[in-house]
Recover the amino acids of this structure.
């Protein structure tokens, strides 16, 4: 944990060098302003940069869901009784089986022969620790890449991994970057009237040679216009860099239309109503050659992706539903 904070501060120090040059103010000013945002608004150093809080006054900063505010909002909108269903990938796959077509096994529940046979049959698989998020610990492999079969089986059993069929995404979504399955993150909110609203959506595209598209693992997120399904503005990565063309392929992203958009809207709305006690969820959806595939639902929906792409604070939208 300490090492992560040190890394974040080093990253911030480098980014403040750029702000110092642009705004012609000493770096100390921005360090103090970052501290001010943390003390008064609960914003992390990354949020200070990615939300461009340095451009805003106190009123403008209040519009954002920050690291500290996100805990309170989640506690008030989502029942902790159902948290395990979303936080455990195995439990999620069982609870949302109507939204999942891919084959999968849970390594601790099967023997080594079953694991190897499954990998051979699927050709390419995704291995996921059941209790991690943000793309951590997830990797893609084929049978030929396993190496020591016995050791592999021991590790996936010990780590409590899901082993899933690798999804063949729709050709349209492979165009920006074919090495990763590029998914849609859709944020749903069930309001006080019990109606499900789609409040934000983004297309996440993996970085160069990446096998996962996750925003926290080097991917780029592109905000989707909710009415049309079109990407109408540059995307961004976790460092706050902006992209009109995707950096992996130089593919023009602005103007790109997400396929099956109306189906996606209906798909996540149905999913949100399975456990309406959890009113604020971030859904990850893949568009495949066969239709739509639910990857996972995020009980702790990423408030940074929610606001860093369009740099529009969503605090009021969420708090009005409480």
């Amino acid at each position: 944990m300490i090492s992560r904070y040190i890394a974040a501060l080093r990253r911030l120090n480098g980014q403040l060098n750029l702000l110092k040059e642009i705004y012609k103010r000493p770096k100390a000013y921005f360090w103090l302003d970052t501290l001010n945002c943390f003390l008064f608004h609960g914003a992390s150093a990354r949020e200070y940069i990615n939300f461009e809080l340095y451009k805003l006054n106190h009123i403008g900063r209040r519009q954002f869901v920050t690291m500290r505010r996100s805990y309170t909002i989640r506690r008030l909108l989502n029942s902790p009784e159902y948290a395990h269903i979303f936080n455990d990938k195995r439990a999620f796959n069982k609870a949302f089986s109507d939204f999942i077509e891919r084959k999968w096994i849970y390594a601790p529940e099967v023997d080594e022969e079953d694991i190897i046979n499954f990998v051979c049959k699927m050709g390419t698989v995704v291995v996921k620790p059941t209790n991690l998020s943000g793309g951590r610990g997830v990797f893609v492999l084929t049978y030929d890449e396993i190496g020591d079969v016995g050791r592999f089986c021991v590790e996936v059993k010990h780590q409590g991994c899901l082993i899933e069929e690798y999804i063949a995404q729709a050709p349209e979504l492979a165009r920006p970057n074919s090495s990763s399955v590029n998914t849609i993150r859709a944020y749903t909110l069930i309001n006080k009237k019990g109606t499900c609203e789609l409040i934000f959506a983004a297309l996440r595209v993996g970085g160069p040679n990446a096998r996962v598209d996750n925003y926290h693992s080097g991917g780029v997120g592109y905000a989707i216009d909710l009415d049309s399904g079109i990407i109408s503005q540059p995307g961004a990565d976790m460092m706050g860099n902006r992209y009109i063309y995707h950096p992996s392929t130089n593919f023009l992203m602005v103007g790109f239309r997400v396929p099956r958009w109306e189906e996606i809207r209906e798909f996540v709305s149905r999913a949100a109503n399975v456990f309406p006690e959890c009113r604020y969820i971030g859904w990850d959806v893949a568009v495949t050659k066969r239709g739509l595939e639910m990857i996972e639902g995020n009980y702790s929906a990423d408030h940074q992706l929610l606001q860093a792409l369009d740099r529009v604070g969503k605090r009021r939208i969420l708090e009005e539903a409480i």
The chain has a mean pLDDT of 92. The domain at 103-165 is CATH 3.30.1490.20 (Dna Ligase; domain 1).
